[in-house]
Design goal:
Order of helices and strands: HEHEHHEHHEHEEHEHE
Largest sheet: 6 strands, parallel
Pfam family, one: Polysacc_deac_1
Strand content: 5-15%
Number of helices: 9
Shape: globular
Organism: Paenibacillus taichungensis
Signal peptide: 1-28
Distance between the termini: 79 Å
Keywords: Signal
Radius of gyration: 26 Å
Domain NodB homology: 43-230
Length: 246
């Protein structure tokens, strides 16, 4: 009889303890599931702008601010010195910094293995002179293929210590400056295709007046779709046409 009573008391104690444990376990499981879901659903995108700063950079930055979006600017040396206020604001606002050379003339930039390096170094000096900072990120004029041959890359990346960036989404805002809907449709289609392939989109756009007309629509859609706008840094593995990871 005593044995039966002890067994009954033990069973009762277990039944009383189990409900106390269940909510905590369920809560932890729910929290872990929610965290994993957030991680899986986060979509990063890198917006990049070439050829600036320009007289329109201030408006471009205002639009980015409106959507709480960050971007990376690949800038030209003479433009940085001409539009110093815009250059300083790009830095102050926490956007990514990149170099686009000096001349933007293929015959000059790619004249020799060292001509491109000299242009990037000169552009870096302009950035430092205007804003007191330097960067190691570069995007060569018209993209790195086919002009930036192995010997040229070895000089620019190996000796110069730069990191080469191209893109995997071309907005073609440079081509269709008046057909804003065409630019929007094209860029969104490319972004979705790149995202579906499991690759992070790196979008090429330009610091120009025409881009201001389509940028708000692009940002609004991307934000609604849950994209996070991040900046390129030397810690991010480069995306370029040569698959050169230096």
């Amino acid at each position: 009889m005593l044995h039966i009573r002890k067994t009954f008391i033990t069973a009762l104690a277990i039944l009383l303890i189990i409900p106390l444990l269940l909510p905590q376990s369920a809560s932890a499981a729910s929290s872990a599931s929610k965290h994993a879901g957030n991680k899986a659903s986060s979509k990063i995108i890198y917006l990049t702008f070439d050829d600036g700063p320009t007289a329109h950079t201030g408006q471009l930055l205002d639009i980015l601010d409106q959507y709480n979006a960050k971007a990376t600017f690949f800038m030209l040396g003479p433009q940085m010195e001409k539009f110093q206020k815009a250059t300083k604001r790009i830095v102050a606002d926490g956007h990514g910094l990149g170099l686009h050379g000096v001349t933007h003339v293929s015959g000059k930039f790619y004249k020799s293995a060292y001509s491109g390096l000299k242009e990037m170094q000169q552009a870096n000096e302009s950035l430092n002179k205007v804003a007191g900072v330097k960067t190691s990120l570069v995007r060569t004029p018209y993209g790195s293929k086919p002009y930036l041959k192995p010997a040229y890359r070895n000089v620019l990346l190996g000796q110069g210590g730069f990191h080469l960036w191209d893109w995997n989404v071309d907005s073609e805002d440079w081509k269709y400056k008046k057909d804003h809907q065409k630019v929007y449709n094209s860029v969104m289609k490319q972004i979705h295709n790149v995202q579906k392939s499991g690759t992070t989109p790196v979008v090429l756009m330009h610091d120009q007046e025409a881009t201001l007309k389509v940028l708000p629509q692009v940002l609004k859609t991307l934000k609604a779709e849950g994209y996070q706008f991040e900046v390129l840094t030397k810690k991010v593995q480069p995306v370029n046409f040569w698959n050169d990871k230096r």
